[in-house]
Design a protein that fits this description.
Helix content is 26%, strand content 30%. The strands form two sheets. It has a four-stranded mixed β-sheet.
């Protein structure tokens, strides 16, 4: 979510009190077929308009690149714990200028956790993760409160 321009826009809307949803189709080609995504975008937006979202919450929606009949349904889930292993590809543009393209692979650190977006997507579900903008590590507060910051 931190590296996603789509989710950055959704979070910005959310921070400004606008009900916001970031949609991503799991396909990167410029001629991707969005017909399956269109079906779910309409359904999800209809629900957001009808029901609203809790204050400070937006939705991160990932849609498998499959025909509609192959989609198993929609799962409300949590974000998977994983890391991107970044790589950079050296490329040359049509004018002969060199540039580097960020690529890489995602390493799933919880491959058997069934309540995550990665599990949902692997099993042909549309994954909806409610997201909020609060990086506070609440479990660390009582630990840090025991530290000696006053030089005593």
């Amino acid at each position: 979510v931190l590296y996603s321009g789509t989710m950055a826009a959704a979070l910005e809307g959310c921070l400004n009190g606008i009900p916001s949803v970031g949609f991503s189709l799991l396909e990167f080609s410029s001629d991707a077929d969005f017909s399956t995504a269109q079906h779910f975008v309409r359904q999800i937006i209809h629900n957001v308009i009808q029901n609203g979202l809790p204050k400070g919450v937006c939705l991160n929606v990932n849609i498998p690149y499959l025909p509609l009949e192959k989609i198993a349904g929609i799962k409300i889930c949590r974000q998977n714990h994983g890391v991107w292993r970044e790589e950079f590809e050296h490329r040359t543009d049509p004018s002969g200028f060199d540039y580097y393209w960020l690529t890489g692979t995602f390493e799933d650190l919880e491959p058997h956790a069934e309540e995550t977006d990665e599990w949902a997507l692997r099993n042909n579900y549309v994954a909806i993760v409610p997201v909020q903008f609060d990086f506070t590590a609440y479990q660390a507060i009582p630990i840090l409160q025991k530290w000696n910051f006053n030089g005593q």
